[in-house]
Amino acid sequence: MESIQAIKQRFGIIGNDPKLNRAIEKAIQVAPTDISVLVTGESGVGKESIPKIIHQLSHRKHGKYIAVNCGAIPEGTIDSELFGHEKGAFTGATQTRNGYFEVADGGTIFLDEVGELPLTTQVRLLRVLENGEFIKVGSSKVQKTNVRIVAATNVQMFEAIKKEKFREDLYYRLSTVDINIPPLRERKEDIHLLFRKFASDFALKYKMPTIKLTDDAISILQKHRWNGNIRQLRNAAEQISVLEQNRTISASTLRGYLPSRSNNLPAVINTSKAESDFSNEREILYKVLFDMKSDLNDLKKLTMELMKNGNTSEVEKDNEGLIQKIYGEPQKDNQAQEFEDLEILAIPEQAEDTFDADESNQDKYHFAEEIEEEETLSLHDKELELIKKSLERHQGKRKLAAAELGISERTLYRKIKQYDL
């Protein structure tokens, strides 16, 4: 059995972190068997190295090694890619195609981002894991395959299982052995080693001197969170190598290539709380819609009674509670504007001059009855006169005139047309 250090040199793995060494050790131990392996870890930590180690140290090393990125294949074609299809199985299937499980028979398949597999494909994969059988798309013939499956994911599998996005039985079949690759922020002593390796590689690639970090810059490099892990570190080393004229990189220069500190703070998202908040908002929305429907029904009822009865005062008296519910505190002016079929009820202008300073103490309705007995003009003529005077007073501005008369602008417009003003 090869040593961990020899494996690192063979597969280009850099670092001495104990967690990384333990992951490599588990890969070496499990390689001679046919046990399914699940590699977990954040995006960019280098999970793809573990399946290569397992394959090369197994008895399948002379067989095919196929790496499949499950997240990059469209849902509609992934079954065909993995298991193959028969001619005419779907539109565009002009010939029979062998899938990866048939091609890799006797070898190893690496399913990267296995957490992105559709549920229907997960069922097919579970059958392969259980008894090595699969069926091509559009076929009824059961075929056998002998492949070693190594899967990898950056998804929190138990959360995916809880949300029913991943089958629990498939998870336990895939994770017979679970190998976790630690994120770069937990391998602080390895960060500078990796940076120096990348800087050396880019110096050879672009034919320029190798960049070096000052002590302060090394300290900043190791304290940075590196959310993108090794991939992000490699990109930073390449940028600095290409763009900086001075090959000694100071702390201030390095900061210019790193995201701001505020973006590096860990974010803890309580998904259950978010789902609960969404549920509460949905309940509130349903309640609002239900109340709106109830108010609309009440308004329909009030309108029907008004149409049937025709007596506004009586309808208002019988439905006082309902009117207050719909419109709030009942006001004479507002009701006159809403019910456009009502005639204008106004005190003649001459009557205004007869009010004295303590008019608030008088019985206005009694006063109106006396005026009505004295006046000989009809209500029609008085209404016409009031509209004319109001329009003249406001220089033809209907909005101001309607407000003074206590009616809606639409009702005033109808009266103007009716009297041909």
What does this structure look like?
With 421 residues, this protein is of the alpha/beta class. It contains 21 helices and eleven strands. It has helices at residues 4-11, 18-30, 49-56, 78-83, 100-103, 119-131, 157-162, 168-174, 188-206, 215-223, 229-243, 251-255, 271-309, 312-318, 320-327, 332-338, 349-352, 364-374, 379-393, 398-405, 409-418; strands at residues 37-40, 65-69, 84-85, 97-98, 108-112, 133-135, 142-144, 148-153, 177-180, 212-213, 248-249. The protein has a five-stranded parallel sheet with strand order 2-5-8-1-9, covered by helices on one side. A two-stranded antiparallel sheet has the order 3-4. It has a two-stranded antiparallel ribbon with strand order 6-7. A hairpin with a 6-residue loop joins β6 and β7. The longest helix is centred in the last third of the chain and has 39 residues, at 271-309. It is elongated. The model is unreliable at 330-376 (pLDDT under 50).
Short synopsis of the structure:
The protein is built from 21 helices and eleven strands. The chain is an alpha/beta fold and about 425 residues long. The longest helix has about 40 residues.
